[in-house]
Amino acid sequence: MASVAQERLENLEGEIKLQDFIKSIIVVKWRDAHHDHISDWTGIDDIEFPNTLITSVGFLVKEDEHHLMIASTKTDSEPMVCGFFTITKRQIISVTRCEEGK
Questions:
Q1: pTM above the 0.70 mark?
Q2: Where along the chain do its domains lie?
């Protein structure tokens, strides 16, 4: 017997199927640039590199040789996104695509 969600998937016509929708969601682990707050003079030996590991989750909008763009929100009826930003690929540590059921 099909679940309610499965029946809904089978009844969708002209809409993005849940399987396709979920596969477009990615988790990106990347290192961000960091700027310490303005402070007094500091000895060079006292300065440490910050740990700026970032995890971002969003819809993959587009990518090219040097960049990956994700968005936090998208419409299902037309190709529109909101809350998008670009990550330079040199900063990316890993990209994981979300799959249904995981």
A1: no
A2: 4-97
